[in-house]
Amino acid sequence: MSQEQSKDISQYFFRASAADFMKIPGNPMAYWATPADRRIFEHKNTLGMVAYPRQGMATTNNDLFLRRWFEVSASKSKFDCSDTDECIFSGAKWFPYNKGGSFRRWYGNNEYLVNFENNGKTICDYIDNTPGVKVGSNGRVINREHYFKPSVTWSFVSSSYLGVRKSDIGFIFDVGGSSSFPPPDLINSVTGFLCCKVAFHLMKAMNPTLNFQVGNIAQLPLLQVPACDQIVKKLVELGRQDWDYFETSWNFKALHLFNCVIHQSKIFETYHGIRSLWLAKTLEMKALEEKNNSLFIGAYGLQDELTPVVPLEEITLNCNPHYRYGINRSEEELETLLQCDTIKELVSYAIGCMMGRYSLDKPGLILANQGETLQDYLKQIPSPRFAPDDDAILPLTDQEWFADDATNRFCEFMRIAWPAPEDASTQQKEQHLQQNLDFVTESLCLHAIKPKRGESAPDTIRRYLSTQFFKDHLRTYKKRPIYWLFSSGKHKAFECLVYLHRYNEGILSRMRTEYVIPLSAKLSIYAEKLEKDRDASPSAAETKRLEKELVTLHKQQAELAEFDEKLRHYADQRISLDLDDGVKVNYAKFGDLLAEVKSVTGTKE
Question: NCBIfam families given for it (predicted)?
Answer without folding.
Answer: BREX_1_MTaseX (NF033452)
